[in-house]
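Supplementary Data S3. Sequence and structure tokens for construct A.
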Amino acid sequence: MKAVEYRLPKEFDKSFIVFREKGKFFPCPWHYHPEYELVLVTKSTGVRMVGDNVGYFDEGDLVFLGPVLPHLWINDPEYINGQAETEAEAIVIHFVDNFLGENFFELPEMKPLKNFLTLSKHGMVIKGVAREKINNLMKKMLYMNGIQRLAALLTIFDIMCDSNEYELLASPGYVKHSQLDCTDRFSKVTAYIMRNFDQDISLKEIASIANMAVSTFCNFFKEHYRVRGR
């Protein structure tokens, strides 16, 4: 399945965007965009796909994505069917490379952050104390003025680049070979998982989609996907 390029909303009186996304479920398709994205899920559970990584999310899940990295959040069926007790909700921050000027990330003080941003091409789930600190700041940012928001974002940058409490998501092989142009076999497997994420998928079934023997597919899957349990 080919990722769709998404045009994100912009506010021309702001250098970066902070907003609350709320609805019965998260509506975005498998997509990518040129902005960096920090996503905090405040309500809802489901499956997230980042590159070739498939994992589960719940309340408090915090993920940082680099530019043009395909991704998708799929809410659990009770949200999609309108049977959940609450609406799905997330707080999202978007910014581009030059949002503070062309040379901002070239400043000597920004070197640790620049290195961290390089890792974001894989996407990363942030954990532990770093996650708690960033979650608290993001919730407060919705009610801050412009200068306060900028100061809070710089604090988030400091927390992220000073922490090792994160897990990279998309595999090195995926990032190396392309974030947008997957092989036909890889695309078919990814699309099948996306369509049937809420079903029990047998090895024989998914191996046939990839036109592989079960043993060969197991090696392929191990190399290209990393699936996380709840």
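Construct B, processed identically:
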Amino acid sequence: MRATVASAAIDPALVEEFLDWQQRLTDAERAFPGFGGSELFRQVPGVQEDWTAVFRFDTEEHLNDWVESPDRKRLLDEGAHFQNFEPHRVASPFGSWFSFGSGPQTWKLP
């Protein structure tokens, strides 16, 4: 599973517009092969000030297809005022805590 994680501070006055834009991104992602899901984590005042978006694809190739697509570029252009963040690719959105599609994790306890 391949994922991209991005965090951004969102002006409270723009939250509804941001949520609409995020939904359009998610709807477009769903149309691409290998889409594995997405999550949007709201800010938690005093704990986590940024909103965090995670989207997953089954392979690096499928992730690249989405990231390099004209559909994504168009949507990013539409939401340019929300892009005060730097996306980061990760092998799994939860590091080694969870395994997506490769069986259960084996944990060694002392």
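The helical segments are 15-30, 60-67, 70-78. The radius of gyration is 15 Å.
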